[in-house]
Amino acid sequence: MTSLYDLAIIGGGLAGCSTALHAALKGASVVLLERGRCGAQASGVNYGGVRQQGRHPAELPLSRRSRAIWGNLKQLVGTSCEFAVTGHLKLARNDVDMMELIAHQRLLAEHDIYAAILDASDLKRRFPYLSGHYPGGSFCGEDGQANPRLVAPAFARAARAWGAHIREGVAVRTAATCAEGFVLHLENDPVPVKARRLVNTAGAWGSAFAAQFDDHVEEGVMAPNMCVTEPIAPFIGPNLGICGGGIYIRQAAHGSVIFGAGLGSADRDLQRARPLADVTMEAAAEAIAMVPQLANVLLVRSWTGIEGRMPDGLPIVGESPNVSGLFHAFGFSGHGFQLGPAVGAVLCELCLDGHSPTSIAGLSMKRFQPALTPAGQP
Prior knowledge:
Distance between the termini: 55 Å
Structural class: alpha+beta
Helix content: 25-40%
Radius of gyration: 21 Å
Number of strands: 22
Largest sheet: 8 strands, mixed
Strand content: 25-35%
């Protein structure tokens, strides 16, 4: 006999697991279906930065709400997942970058996020390990880092403890509407899953599930190329980034330095991704150019994962334009880790309450649908 859930979730990344937990906390009946293991794709293999700084305005309400959840992580899921408030330092390459950082500082302030603009002398005094060719930067002290391998599984365990059905190793073959809401047909299981509401958090495969409901968007893939060193004495305080993209660096509490730049290789159909040696070498050179003390540190591993990417670099978050009761959150384009906890909270509210106090304006799938031309106009 098929159970009817209040909410079914496709995909066990951080956004999906957070949705499951927040819905279970509201007393809803929830099932989450994950083809592999929770957090095994982009949510678990990313860099681990937890930053508000450097985001598009459309993401800032979500980012702000998510930062509050990150600060309460141990109470929410039973572990801090190595979340640490280290700050995030975004470095300028030139005077044009400095003007951009100053403008972004004003934008952040509109969302009650404080960033300090630093000049070259401030950088030398506060971060003496940096190479000396940066004219300045922006430091957001609230930002930090966490261990991505721990976070989605922690949300999944907490959701299960609150009564959610977390089903790993279960692939969804097809999804469709039905009289009760939605029906999901599974691979290697003859019993379908039915639910009144459906959440699609299937990551790089999100657009394929959306297309089953005639929600068509072009979702590409990306594979951020990342590296980790041997443990060394702690000396890098904040997350380090740079205007215009490129190298990003952080040091974990146990001493290893995590850094990345460029892209590896990803095959969505085969569900395989791998880092590229030449990209790794270029990233290592960029890391040394930023932090010269890394020159003789041993690199122990490089890795990557499959992440969905939207044409404008912004995720899709919100209700389907075509199907009532269907909600999407995918295409995070390499910067969804910090947003994940709040995305789940918002999806839960949209599903169960019909609205959310957190704005997701600018993230709707509708932005990719061509506007209809009024009758009589060319």
